[in-house]
Amino acid sequence: xxxxxxxxxxxxxxxxxxxxxxxxxxxxxxxxxxxxxxxxxxxxxxxxxxxxxxxxxxxxxxxxxxxxxxxxxxxxxxxxxxxxxxxxxxxxxxxxxxxxxxxxxxxxxxxxxxxxxxxxxxxxxxxxxxxxxxxxxxxxxxxxxxxxxxxxxxxxxxxxxxxxxxxxxxxxxxxxxxxxxxxxxxxxxxxxxxxxxxxxxxxxxxxxxxxxxxxxxxxxxxxxxxxxxxxxxxxxxxxxxxxxxxxxxxxxxxxxxxxxxxxxxxxxxxxxxxxxxxxxxxxxxxxxxxxxxxxxxxxxxxxxxxxxxxxxxxxxxxxxxxxxxxxx
Length: 328
Description:
The chain is of the alpha+beta class. The chain folds into 2 domains: 14-183 and 292-326, no CATH class; 188-288, no CATH class. It is 22% helix and 25% strand. It is built from 8 helices and 16 strands. It has helices spanning 54-59, 62-66, 74-91, 119-127, 195-205, 251-255, 298-306, 311-318; strands at residues 14-17, 26-28, 31-33, 36-41, 46-51, 131-135, 138-139, 144-145, 188-194, 221-227, 233-239, 244-248, 269-276, 279-288, 296-297, 323-326. A 3-stranded antiparallel β-sheet has the order 1-4-5, with no helix packed on it. Strands 7-6-16 form a 3-stranded antiparallel β-sheet. Helix 3 crosses helix 4, helix 3 (74-91) packs antiparallel against helix 7 and helix 3 crosses helix 8. The longest helix is centred in the first third of the chain and has 18 residues, at 74-91.
């Protein structure tokens, strides 16, 4: 990615794919990309890097993150454009040692190249050109996710060291008491495990947090040991054959994966436990929201836009105390 000052990430040894006509795209694996594509050698093979100006990059991010949106929801797209620009500015050169700035996935933010561009996404990028959220004159940690479930999380609930004045937990409710993100298909959810499914899940996931395979066996108990300030699960306690394991913070969603193998949608859940013969025979998690819960709630932004809020008001709600500022 090329930053607003023209600074470009270091390029590792490789080749560059450049369109003959600057107005055309580079095609890779059936997808089209603006700018150029560098093919870099790495330890495992090849890495393809799309080098593109910031605003062109955002054209491929906004609708990839937010999907197609109607006219009444365009202010949510503008809010996403500002947040995505802020994230990119804050994290430029994050992966410079690997020859690029940002991953094109949820590891950073989803980027689909020219194929992901839409008219409404393009309008949102153009309407907010150069604008970022700042605190103390610098771009903020612009976290975002799908659905808060009615209340966002404090930064420190999820990210170590994220004690930021603008990453505070807020109740994301309209004046009628209904959550702005209640329109999300992930606003409320349920996952169920049989005793066998729970054992299989924990045998795969607990070793990743340092539990010895020798300790794994029947699950005698599983319970919420503590909750965070936003009422998300802060600690999960799991009773095993000869020990009790504590799982904290973000690890909870990775350890208590759904039977499908996917991480749990959020840490905002309650458990119902069935037991038989001294072991857990059934587990049900009833939850709210999707994602870590810190910063911008994307579906909440859509709900706020439908309620008539402008993108400046939406951003002020999710990042209280931060300032909307033009970077260039």
